[in-house]
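Dear colleague,

Thank you for sharing your sequence with our group. We've completed the structure prediction you requested, and as agreed, I am returning the results in plain text so they can be pasted directly into your records. Please verify that the sequence below matches your submission; if there's any discrepancy, let me know and we will rerun it promptly.
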Amino acid sequence: MSDGATTLATAIAAAVRLGSEAGLPADDVAVEAAILAAALSESARGAAVDWAAGSGRSTTDHAAFAVRGRAWRRQPSPLLSQLVERGAPGAAAYADALADVASAACSLGEPTLRAIAVATLSAAAQRRAVAASSDELADQGAGAADRLVTAYRDPRSESDSAPKSTPGSSSAPATVTGAEPALPTLEELLAELDSLIGLVGIKAE
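Please find the predicted C-alpha cells below.
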C-alpha cells in the first residue's frame, strides 16, 4: 500500500470513529468519506489505485464515487449537515475528520494544482458548516481556494460543458487588455493553502 493509500485509510478510519461517536452509522460514514476522497482526487492521475487501496473498494468505483461527491467540494456533506441541523456535539469533530479526508485525497496518485485547491475548498466548506459566520480564517481559505479552482479548471472533472456556438452567433475573440497574471507555483500554492486551512503532509514531488 502506498503512502497516499495509507494516509487515506487512516483518515477514513478516524472519520468512521468520530462519526459513530456522533451517532452516525459507521458504514454510511465510510461510504461518505470514500465519496469525498474520490471527488477531490478525480483530476489526479493514478489516484484511483491509491483511492481503492485506502478505501477498500475497487478502482472501477472511483469515477462513479467522484461524480456523487462533486457537490461536496463547495458544500458540507449530507451526514455532516444532519449533525449540524440537530446540533450534535460531535459535529465539529466530524467536520475536522472530513477535512482530514480532504487532505489525504491530495496525496493520492499524482496530485494536480487544481486537486489541491479543490481539496482546500472542500475542507473549508466542511469546517464552515459548524463554524460561526464570522470565522475569518475559513472564509479566507474558501475564497483563496475558489479563485485557484477557477484558475486551474480541469474539464475532466467538470459537470458543465463549455458553451456551444449557435448559428448566427458571434465567435470573435474578446479583446485582450493586458497580460494574464502569473499563476502560483505548486510550492507557493501549498504554502498558502497550508497557512489558511491546515492541509499538512502534502509535498511536491
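Summary note from our side: The chain has nine helices and no strands.

Kind regards,
the structure core
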